[in-house]
Amino acid sequence: TNVLSLLDLDNIETISVLKDASQVAKYGPRAANGVVYIKTKVAKGGDKRITLNGYSGISVPNNVTTINAEFERNLRQPFYDKYATAEQIAAYPNYLSDSSNVNYYGPSNWVDLYYKVSPLYTLNGSLTGGNARSSFRFFGNHTYNTSGADDTKFNKTYGNFNVQMMPTTWMIVDGN
């Protein structure tokens, strides 16, 4: 849902913040508070150039201390005894009042099932080349990102191809 997620940081040439009225006027009324102008890399003439970038790491979960119903009941009960109305006592959670339930005294080790150490990585590369009258640029990226909680993850594959041609000295054709 975020249009900026379509951009890859390795494919950005410059980022400018425009606030001057004369600079943002051409962007219309939606630019009343300013404009963030992002210029991506384009095809350039010259020798062919290949770039490869990447990183990898791990997502380490936060330390979460879990408790069982016995601990929760011992924490809440003094407050119920002192401040609770009859209506609040009637609405006392069943899992805290039923010590015959096997989970009441049971271990609270669900955190190991829910949170895990997870890998994350990004790989990208580009190929640029051409001459003064015709040039190209290809960029590709794959990102795998995880949060470590409940097997949530994010995969993104991105590609961009830019070609620039100058059939005559007064005409430039640029395709993306």
Task: Report on the architecture of this protein.
It contains five helices and seven strands, in the order βαββααααββββ. With 176 residues, it is of the alpha+beta class. The chain has a five-stranded antiparallel sheet, with no helix packed on it. A two-stranded antiparallel sheet has the order 1-2. β6 and β7 (171-175) form a beta hairpin. The mean pLDDT is 86.
Global geometry = elongated
Strand content: 35-45%
Q: What order do the SSEs take from the amino end to the carboxyl end, as H and E? A: EHEEHHHHEEEE
Taking pLDDT < 50 over at least 5 consecutive residues as the criterion, the unreliable ranges are: none
List keywords for this structure.
176 residues; alpha+beta; five-stranded antiparallel beta sheet; two-stranded antiparallel ribbon; 7 strands
Question: What is the fold's blueprint, element by element?
Answer:
Blueprint: E1 12-18, H1 21-24, E2 35-40, E3 46-59, H2 69-83, H3 86-90, H4 94-97, H5 111-114, E4 118-130, E5 134-146, E6 153-168, E7 171-175
Antiparallel strand pairs: 1-2, 3-4, 4-5, 5-6, 6-7
Summarize the structure.
This protein has 176 residues and is an alpha+beta fold. It has five helices and seven strands.
